[in-house]
Automatic annotation (TrEMBL), chain A:
Pfam families documented for this protein: CoA_trans (PF01144)
Keyword annotations from UniProtKB, A to Z: Transferase
Name of the protein in its database record: CoA transferase subunit A
Native source species: Candidatus Segetimicrobium genomatis
Stored SUPFAM superfamilies: NagB/RpiA/CoA transferase-like
Superkingdom of this protein's organism: Bacteria
Family assignment from sequence similarity: Belongs to the 3-oxoacid CoA-transferase subunit B family.
UniProt-recorded Gene Ontology molecular function terms: CoA-transferase activity
């Protein structure tokens, strides 16, 4: 049974300096509120893992939390660059950022291998690309049965994975629905798992016997954090704030505007969850 | 009827898709072209977004690859590991539709860096799903605005493999898929030469000159012997495209550029 904790306590206890941390969510259910608490607590030298770093890792990188990034697509979807990520890579601000770069297929397979307890992931991938030349963790092996050449990468085993989900019941079982991304794999692959949820309920309201449910004993800590995925979205609770994703381009472009925004909206905010703003509610 | 070069590009791209295609859709212009096809001549096309949504029928174009609009209109939504394993690497997709920052004369695509990888002039977002889309889909269509910055002799970084150094390079690497079979720009259509695999101009859009294409291509571009002329957009195609982009822009998705 996971512990139901306040956000400050969950991050203080489960996320340590120097950890390999995965905050997943493929456009949907991105754990922004938890990421902001990591920034407020001033974690340093993190190795951040995420398929699509998105705004939350732009913020963590710009605030100096990260030493290394393992990723596969580092942009602001539909808008353009992640300026803080670019500044760290191109100019070393606020500190240099080591990159371990993959494709989506590679990282998705590496999480699945981590969840399966395998040391490596294999895939039909990276053929002909320059990625193996810049990432020594992409190698090729021969299938012992057919002789086919396949890509091999180490499985991903984060020290801690943090995901956001729609609901938990009071026993600590968690439901995710909509675009479920790699969250199940990221949680099962990790040594520790922290889940923030829109609400803790008596009845999980599992729509189908095939819904994605994380049993209580796969999770270490649950934090009730309504709105915890904003400005990304929580299917059935609120919509993606596409306007904010567009505005982030200007906010994040210069150090001054970025730091002013972070100070106003993250550092000076308490970690107590803001009241939920309920949008179009489904199911 | 008046239309822009960008509208011509999206209409020409949409026309290349067939009603029975299963298409993995990149975000941005590929998504606009694929949905235009679905709303015109290809109503039964299956559109797949790498976020896991299979058979998406978005009413408005998404801003990101995982907007709720996709999941809410999809036949089914699968996990991301399943998407890349069963559906992409499993060989169930007929067309991968990609955009590019740079593309070279052999159809290799760069979306990773401009300049040296270790000391980039511009750090681009990276490969995302594209490296395996380029190798696993039956064929790949690319949509990209025609400029010498985009159409380079050799890409700075091969993010997604096209024809490598040309000829049978794909076969030598064990790839059995066709690779980039069509490049759609705002000036023309390009297809690979059957043997050398160099991209040739095969169809010129209305009121575009050969000189203009040559100036905006970063290598001495060749024209096919049986060069065609692209039909201008019909009034029907333009009406559907403009309506789609307008309502998408109003909804906060991808709008008119």
């Amino acid at each position: 049974m996971p512990r139901f904790l306040a956000l400050t306590d969950a991050i203080a206890e489960y996320v340590h300096n120097g950890d390999t941390v995965a905050m997943e969510g493929f456009t949907h259910l991105i754990p922004f509120t938890a990421g902001h608490e990591v920034i407020r607590q001033g974690r340093r030298n993190l190795t951040l893992v995420r398929m699509t770093p998105d705004l939350i890792y732009d913020q963590l990188i710009g605030m100096g939390c990260a030493r290394k990034l393992i990723f596969s697509w580092g942009g602001n979807p539909g808008v353009g660059s992640l300026h803080r990520l670019r500044d760290a890579v191109e100019n070393g601000w606020p500190q240099p950022l080591e990159l371990e770069e993959h494709s989506h297929a590679g990282i998705a397979t590496a999480y699945a291998a981590g969840a399966a307890g395998l040391p490596l992931a294999i895939l039909r991938g990276y053929v002909g690309t320059d990625l193996p030349g810049v990432n020594p963790n992409i190698r090729f092996i021969e299938d012992p049965f057919t002789g086919v050449r396949l890509a091999a990468i180490p499985s991903l085993r984060p020290d801690v994975s943090i995901v956001h989900a729609q609901r938990a019941d009071r026993a600590g079982n968690v439901l995710l629905e909509g675009i479920v991304g790699v969250q199940k794999e990221a949680v099962l692959a990790a040594t520790r798992a922290v889940v923030t949820v829109e609400e803790v309920v008596d009845d999980l309201r599992v729509a189908s016997s095939n819904s994605v449910v994380l049993p209580s004993w796969t999770i270490d800590a649950i934090v009730e954090a309504p709105g915890g995925a904003r400005p990304s979205y929580a299917h059935g609770y609120y919509r993606r704030d596409n306007a904010f994703y567009t505005q982030w381009d200007a906010i994040s472009r210069e150090h001054e505007t970025f730091l002013a925004w972070m100070n106003e909206n993250v550092l000076r905010k308490s970690s107590s969850p803001s009241p939920p703003i309920r949008g179009r509610r489904k199911g | 009827m008046d239309y822009t070069a960008s509208e011509m590009m999206m209409v020409a791209a949409a026309r290349a898709l067939k009603n029975d295609d299963v298409c993995l859709v990149g975000i941005g212009m590929p998504s606009a072209a694929c949905n235009l096809a679905r709303l015109t001549h290809a109503p039964n096309i299956t559109l797949i977004y790498e976020s896991g949504t299979i058979g998406a029928k978005p009413y408005v174009l998404p801003l990101s690859i995982g907007d709720p609009e996709l999941c809410e209109t999809a036949l089914t939504t699968v996990s991301v590991p399943e998407m890349f394993a069963y559906w992409l690497q499993g060989g169930r997709i007929t067309v991968g539709f990609l955009a590019a920052a740079q593309i070279d004369r052999f159809g290799n695509i760069n979306t990773t860096v401009i300049g040296e990888y270790s000391k980039p002039k511009v750090r681009l977002p990276g490969g995302g799903g594209a490296p395996e889309i380029a190798s696993s889909c039956d064929q790949v269509f690319v949509i990209v605005s025609h400029s010498p910055r985009a159409f380079v002799p050799k890409v700075d970084f091969v993010t997604s493999f096209g024809f490598g150094t040309g000829g049978n390079h794909r076969q030598r690497l064990g790839l059995t898929t066709m690779g980039p079979s069509l490049i759609v720009t705002d000036l023309c259509l390009m297809r690979p030469h059957p043997q050398t695999k160099e991209l040739l101009v095969t169809s010129v859009h209305p009121s575009v000159t050969r000189e203009e294409i040559a100036i905006r291509t970063g290598w001495p571009v060749q024209f096919a012997g049986d060069l065609a002329h692209t039909d201008p957009p019909t009034a029907g195609e333009l009406a559907v495209l403009r309506d789609l982009l307008n309502r998408s822009g109003q909804a906060g998705g991808m709008g008119p550029s």
